[in-house]
Amino acid sequence: MSQLQPAFGLSKRSATTAALPAAKPAVQVAKLIDVSKCIGCKACQVACMEWNDLRQDIEENVGVYENPHDLSPNAWTLMRFTEWENPERGQLEWLIRKDGCMHCQDPGCLKACPAPGAIVQYSNGIVDFISANCIGCGYCVKGCPFNSPRISTADNKAYKCTLCSDRVAVGQGPACAKACPTKAITFGTKDDMKKLAAERVEDLKERGYSKAGLYDPPGVQGTHVMYVLHHLDKPALYAGLAENPRISPLVEVWKGAGKYAGLALLGITAAFGVVHHLLAGANRVTEEDEENAEKLRGGGA
Amino acid sequence: MTEHRDGEAHMQVPRYSGSARINHWIVAVSFVLLMISGLALFHPSLFWLTGLFGGGPTARWVHPWLGVVLVVGFLGLFLRFFAANLPERTDWVWLARLRHVLAGREEYLPEVGKYNAGQKFVFWAQAVLVMVMFVTGIGLWPAGLAYFEELLGFKATIDQRRMAAVIHAGSAVLTIAIWIIHVYAAIWVRGTISAMTRGTVTGGWAWRHHRKWLRKEIGKEPGGPQPAE
């Protein structure tokens, strides 16, 4: 269960047309995941399970490093492993990306969600699913550019990383960041995380990773989970990280102009009926028609 | 022109059998419930409609099953009526004189069989849209999609599922617009609704709107005019 954290103001609320109460401008937060520092120990996964009380069913070993096989309603974060031979450097690189919700500043899940208040964005940028309001339709899955939300078949609710909004609400960092032994995961204000990332990128460049950089994709107005990548020019290397993520134009049409165009067309059709009836009047059968029918039956027509 | 006087017994012509009417109303009721639950998820300002179903989660799971009921029911209507809805040459004449139709000037229109071109349009448009919405609806139905993926051995991509959402919503808008026309036409053309309630229409109604059909029906009656020998 994921619950609303009243400690924060809201900057966005799903399926809500009314204005939100004015929230105090809050400092934007972010989690920085330095892929170059990750050793793949999965302490973050364990910490996530423990803090959020999640237990993924035991699965079959199919000979890959990932465990479990994929994100699930009970696995909100997952280390994804890629072995890549770097042709420039002639070395094998083990690229390990901690996958999970990226907490987009422009969240596609929230845009697609039809249930009022089932998805919120706090004024600090965290995107949270509010289970009590979730109806389990799966629209968030279609809205997400990162394939993060999962629908539980147990309670038909959508689940994903909350960025430990309950911990952040009481001044703590996310459980995964706390557990990370190499400080590959850090949490703080978005500005601080960008500064830290800049230092790391500079360091990586000095060590020969000329394309190192910070993954904070502008297509979704930046994310509140950011990656330091050794190969920012090839994000897809990292288990298919999206090159230029943005809300799909299909979702934009569906949940943007389409909504208004659709209702307008229905309104126009109904209005046509009303106006037509006012102008043309009822189309009534006359007594003459009845008599003609009688004559036809009598064989006289 | 004398008006129809209430209470006077007019000649009644059977138009729909009992089973056809039951079939129609199964489709009608499921359509209305689908429309309400669908519109509730279409625009936030209509989300309150889920309350009629006992809340959002119920509306969400009931909608696809109602869809299954409608598809099965519509298949019944399709098989019953498709032959009578095949296009004829006079349909084009009727359509070309649509302004006379809208003005209620039947005297300028060709004699019509069981269905006029407008009714045929409703029939075929809804048949196509029901099919489209069934296929795209499965793409939006997590449990149903998983079942069909297993059954047919494929995996829908996320972009296919997004496309399904757009097409489903667009088709839903069209199908509701056509439903509005269908309901309005039944109200505007007085004497029509009894066809689907009691199963009969008056002779005058049939004479006025479906004369070719009336001639055929009367020909079938034992006491009716027989073809010249």
Structure description:
The complex is a heterodimer of chains A (301) and B (229). Chain A has 301 residues and is of the alpha+beta class. Chain A has helices spanning 43-52, 108-112, 139-143, 165-168, 175-179, 190-206, 249-255, 257-280, 287-297, and strands at 10-13, 29-34, 77-86, 91-100, 119-122, 127-129, 150-151, 158-159, 185-189, 213-215, 225-229. Chain A contains nine helices and eleven strands. Chain A has a four-stranded mixed beta sheet. A three-stranded antiparallel beta sheet of chain A has the order 1-5-6, with no helix packed on it. Chain A has a two-stranded antiparallel ribbon with strand order 3-4. In chain A, a hairpin with a 4-residue loop joins β5 (119-122) and β6 (127-129). The longest helix of chain A is centred in the last third of the chain and has 24 residues, at 257-280. A two-stranded antiparallel ribbon of chain B has the order 1-2. Chain B has helices at residues 18-42, 56-81, 89-96, 98-103, 117-140, 142-152, 158-188, 194-197, 203-209, 211-220, and strands at 12-14, 200-202. The interface between A and B is large, with 53 and 63 residues.
Task: Please give a quick description of this structure.
Chain A is built from 9 helices and 11 strands.
Summarize the topology.
The complex is a heterodimer of chains A (301) and B (229).
Chain A: E1 10-13, E2 29-34, H1 43-52, E3 77-86, E4 91-100, H2 108-112, E5 119-122, E6 127-129, H3 139-143, E7 150-151, E8 158-159, H4 165-168, H5 175-179, E9 185-189, H6 190-206, E10 213-215, E11 225-229, H7 249-255, H8 257-280, H9 287-297
Parallel strand pairs in A: 2-11
Antiparallel strand pairs in A: 1-5, 2-9, 3-4, 5-6, 7-8, 10-11
Chain B: E1 12-14, H1 18-42, H2 56-81, H3 89-96, H4 98-103, H5 117-140, H6 142-152, H7 158-188, H8 194-197, E2 200-202, H9 203-209, H10 211-220
Antiparallel strand pairs in B: 1-2
